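Q: Fold this one first, please.
A: Sequence and structure below.
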Amino acid sequence: MEKLADIGVFGGSGFYKFLDDIEEVSIETPYGMPSDNLFIGKVGSHKVAFLPRHGRNHTILPHLINYRANVWAMKAVGCTRVISPCAAGSLQKHVAPGHFVICDQFVDWTDGRKSTIFEGPIATHPSAAEPYCPELRELAIKTAKDLGITVHDHGTVVVINGPRFSTKAESKFFTNQGWEVINMTAFPEAYLVKEMDMCPLNISLITDYDAGLVGDVPPVSHHEVMQVFNNNVANLKKLLFTMIENIPAEREKCDCANTKKNSQP
């Protein structure tokens, strides 16, 4: 396929509707259809492909997203880097609603998701020790600080299956592990990006304190999550587009492009 984009973003329509000359592209994949078409536009010198992971009308629940198809579609149009902004809950008091966390680790607490493209016959065992691209993380942190956005330069996101939120007991367990962020979509999305030799980046926008933080926070509701997210979407847009404009053309500070090669005998 002709190279249509070099940067991918998993995000909703709010991130691309104001761009000029948007091209809508339908992609078929070996794993079925993605959540939606890709919307391709230009940000600075980069062609950027946007894909709403829940569909354009937010109708696909986290545990039903076809993550492999979504990531394969990004690869198919030519992307080498993929940015995954997501709404997330906080498990620690110092990580407050409205803050951003550039995660450097994940914990997979999901169940039954198709989480790899490697199904043989060659034995392939990718390392997930450093799951996110160091070059993109460094740029995201610097950009957020330059824009005056409160950002945490590291954090572990525990990914639960959804669609339900955690019980207080579950949430307290996650907090006691020292993990900072909880979310329903961060795995296997970014991990599959790395499996496909692209650079993954997680940007967690904290929308709420999770239910069992200290036992003194009200239960999380979807309405409150979306209210905080929408209030901060302007900051997320500024961060995304400023960062994308400054992404270098060549990948020189990471080894993400060699993930598959480094995973096989």
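Q: Good. Now the second chain.
A: Here it is, same layout.
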Amino acid sequence: MMIQDIGPHRLYNQFDPAATPEDGDTVLLLSGGTVAAKLSEKTLAFPKVRDFAAEARARLIYLFRVDEERFFLCTGEDALPEGFAMTDLRTVRQAEPEPKYLVFAALTGKHLADWYRDTRFCGRCGTPTVPSEKERARICPACGNTAYPRIMPAVIAGVIDGDRILLTRYNRPGAYNALIAGFTEIGETLEETVAREVMEEAGLKVKNIRYYKSQPWGVANDILTGFFCDLDGSDEIVLDANELKSAVWTKREDIVLQPDRTSLTNEMMERFKSGEPC
């Protein structure tokens, strides 16, 4: 189950300019890659509006709702309510706590928090922006430039050669098995991104590029698109050591999955490992 699979719950991300915080609403206090939370064994809780001082309540920003539960954004660790701790979002995700929809809410909130942080000033003329009263946007009162939430397209590529798949590890501490991945460049199709990234990172040619599934991924503010493809020609790997620590052809039975099973990458590896059509 991927992180956005929160059924029977449902995300309603429409902008609501009339939303004002009430005591029972949930608050995502986000700072960098951390969130104010109570994480205990397998349970997760976020603070409510009533847990915050008046000054912090005054700067809350409406985000979205899950079912009828409304979520507001708060920034600045100075507002941390008693009994909560700033917790790394990776830790929250890997703990796979209940209820699962709160983890998805936190990562989606992080995506929006980054956008609010990065659009405080106009990217065209540098003037401080103001919130739109009609839609989720930041408007420059000087030049009229309007900034909307940014979503960056990226691909994940499962490269297959018979009963083998190419597993990679990023060149950073604590990296787990993964697949080739990268962001789409301007003027490029998603399929062209797959072919380019596989060539750049592993020196391999691919064919039969086919779409599998997509996933919103607030960790990096992107929308992930998963593709499977087949090796075309030589299986000799030419590793991009700046990007990857390793790239290895791995048989189905030897695949070691990620400890966090909420990602599209892990689902694609698991699908191949189990012998399902790819």
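Q: Anything worth noting on the second one?
A: The CA atoms of residues 146 and 263 lie 32 Å apart.
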